[in-house]
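It is worth pausing here to work through a concrete case rather than discussing structure prediction in the abstract. The textbook approach is simple: state the sequence, then state the predicted structure, then interpret. We follow exactly that order.
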Amino acid sequence: MERTEIKVSAPGRLCLLGEHQDYFGLPILAAAIDLRIAISGEKNSSKVFRLDLPDIDDQEQFPVDQELPYSQERDYFKSAVNILRREGLAFSSGWGCEVHGNIPINSGTASSSSLVVAWIKFLLEAAADKRTEQAKAIAELAFQAEVGEFQEPGGKMDHYASAVGGVISLHFGKTLKVIAHPNPLGEFVLADSLIRKNTTGTLGFIKSHVLRGIQQIRGALSEFALTSPSGEREQTEINALPEVEKRLVTGTLLTRDITAEGESLFQSSKFDHTRFGDLLNRQQDVVRDYLQISIPKIDRMIEASLQAGALGAKINGSGQGGCIFAYAPGKTQEVAEALKALDTKPKIVHIDSGVRKE
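Step two, the predicted structure:
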């Protein structure tokens, strides 16, 4: 039956553990949350996609039947169409669409990736493509449209967290392994610092210096890898690195080990909420002291959350601004009030499902 109306949505995400790990091929632990981007559309007789974006007071339109030139930085609506057309998809008609969302923009909660995941899902539905039911295929297409097409430095965490949903681990190797975990988690408080961040600049800086440090270590230890256990020889070479490389490589390895502890926790027969909070706090210590992607206001928000009863709290995403989240089952109202007093915008959030047709 021909589709004439479509509505889809995709969630934002929390990076539970594993900041700045996925683009090094190291595991991460992430979760989808019940803040979402929704795209609704009606088929029309034109050969044009018309998009209304009232949340940012913008509009876009472009033809459905040709390779689209990019007219702005990170032109994701067009890149998604181009990626799918190169894969052989054809769109027989145009669509008038409206895009709404309640995910904080440019704040570390994967608003852009959620948008691309939702748009890929919409386009696959419009073309009646079988991949519309394949969350992992949607994640890969969204990664190509957002990161690959524009040669950005990011990884695949955001796209898989939004497409698959729930609590997941991602393991990177010759093939990507997605592990879906049971969800034992209670409520979180997500709070926007209202300080915008420079995601690609932060990613690029950390990535380039860690890779430089790895190259130098391999001059003495050719077999060295971030995925390998670290012993005395490895530590000696890390200590010999220039200060920035030493700090960032050390932070990357500490995060690797914290994430492995977190994954074991989700795989245990009984989930320890207090230990989970401690892992969040340890991860925050690393991103503050080693990756140095926290800022004073973020530090104050985290301290206020812990004093109000949160079990743990950390920055969410690439850092230098954006959001934090606090794990605070049974204490969300107290934590939200404490964060509100710091001129932030707190929201109580829960783990949610992945991309879906509404």
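Step three, interpretation. The chain has a mean pLDDT of 94. The first helix runs from residue 76 to 86.
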